[in-house]
Specification:
Blueprint: H1 2-12, E1 22-27, H2 36-49, E2 53-56, H3 58-63, E3 70-75, H4 80-86, H5 89-100, E4 104-108, H6 110-114, E5 116-121, E6 124-127, E7 133-139, E8 151-157, E9 170-175, E10 180-183, E11 190-195, E12 202-209, E13 212-217, H7 245-256, E14 277-284, E15 286-290, E16 295-301, E17 307-312, E18 318-319, E19 326-334, E20 338-345
Parallel strand pairs: 1-2, 1-3, 3-4, 4-13, 5-7
Antiparallel strand pairs: 5-6, 7-10, 8-9, 8-11, 11-12, 12-13, 14-15, 15-18, 16-17, 16-19, 19-20
């Protein structure tokens, strides 16, 4: 009898389960539709800003509500047709619920097109189901670069928009097959930036959806053309005359509903900081980093953002023989800055 009473007490006792939450869900499908380098670059930006994130695929979006686990969702460049094919009606509703209840959506290039009512691509009209943006995305823009080529393009930042409170009036960003935004009549949007090379048409827009926020970006401010801190080798031969990550920093504050800020001195590149050389890369068993004198910590993350190694005041070479083959993010921190490098592990033949 005592055992029965004990069972009933335990069974009826209130339980509290702590569910891990992240600031951002990052849409990823193994480089099928989602552009892998874009995913990596945006993850490196979020790491630089100190914003938590986790990759999600269509299966998770289709089966689990997002609003209880994430504050925002990012859809990268790539091919929005795959997004539309893989995410079903339930998944679309999960994304809408996330934003409507106070979350946020950021779409880059194809991710912005996916959020539009329609995409007009090379004259062909495609209907997408998400419908955050009541309007059409029309591309590519041949005046900026003939698809599938890319080029740097100058965009004018709207000085009256809150996201641009700290940045320059003009930014050079990578254009690679993005669209221009054409809102339907009476569609309320804020134009954050316009294309200088395309009749000052909207290049970046933002608006509210229910209690949430939507930011759609045609070019690629997440790509650092003349820097390796984005973890990818995209358009390295080009120069963006600085960095667009300052804009993304403040934009991320707006998306998450945080007080608007600009990068601190710790995060801003400083004159004379060392460029780290990681060798060998691919890594066989151990890794050296040069110069090493100022390094206070080295961290390794896998593709999902899981921390695998946190070495404080490390000695070199660093033993990485325990890591399976694959691509990892290596975060190097000094007293004055931190940077993230891509490392390939090739321990097993």
């Amino acid at each position: 009898m005592k055992n029965i009473l004990l069972f009933l007490l335990i069974f009826n006792a209130p339980f509290s389960f702590s569910q891990q939450t992240y600031d951002f869900a990052i849409y990823h499908d193994g480089d099928i539709g989602a552009w892998e380098e874009d995913v990596i670059a945006f993850e490196h930006f979020l790491d630089w800003k100190g914003v938590s994130h986790k990759r999600v695929g269509a299966q998770e979006i289709n089966t689990a509500p997002l609003k209880d686990s994430y504050g925002a969702i990012f859809f990268p460049g790539g091919d929005a047709d795959y997004y539309s094919a893989d995410i079903n009606a339930t998944g679309i509703q999960h994304i809408r619920d996330l934003v409507f209840t106070g979350g946020a959506y950021i779409g880059m290039c194809a991710g912005a097109e996916f959020a539009s009512d329609k995409l007009v691509w090379e004259g062909f009209e495609i209907d997408y189901p998400l419908n955050f943006f009541q309007g059409k995305s029309i591309g590519p823009i041949d005046q900026l670069a003939i698809w599938p080529d890319y080029a740097m393009t100058s965009v004018s930042m709207n000085p009256n928009d809150e996201i641009n409170s700290f940045g320059d009036e003009q930014e050079d960003m990578l254009y690679w097959g993005g669209s221009v935004f054409h809102p339907y009549a009476d569609t309320p949007i804020d134009t954050v930036a316009t294309f200088d090379g395309f009749a000052n048409k909207p290049a970046i827009i933002k608006f509210y959806y229910g209690n949430g926020r939507v930011l759609l970006i045609s070019p690629h401010p997440e790509i650092e053309e003349d820097s390796n801190r984005d973890g990818v080798n995209v358009a390295e031969e080009l120069d963006d005359n600085g960095s667009d990550w300052g804009f993304l920093w403040t934009a991320t504050d707006w998306l998450l509903g945080n007080p608007l800020s600009e990068p601190t001195a710790l995060h801003s590149p400083a004159q004379g900081q060392p460029h780290f050389k990681l060798f060998p890369n691919p890594v066989h068993k151990s890794l050296n980093i040069s110069p090493k004198d100022e390094i206070i910590s080295v961290k390794f993350y896998d593709w999902s953002g899981r921390l695998l190694l946190n070495s404080k005041n490390p000695t070199f070479p660093i033993d990485l023989s325990f890591l399976p083959n694959g691509v990892y993010s290596c975060q190097i921190e000094t007293q004055h800055m931190q940077t993230i490098e891509k490392v390939v592990i090739a321990n097993q033949p």
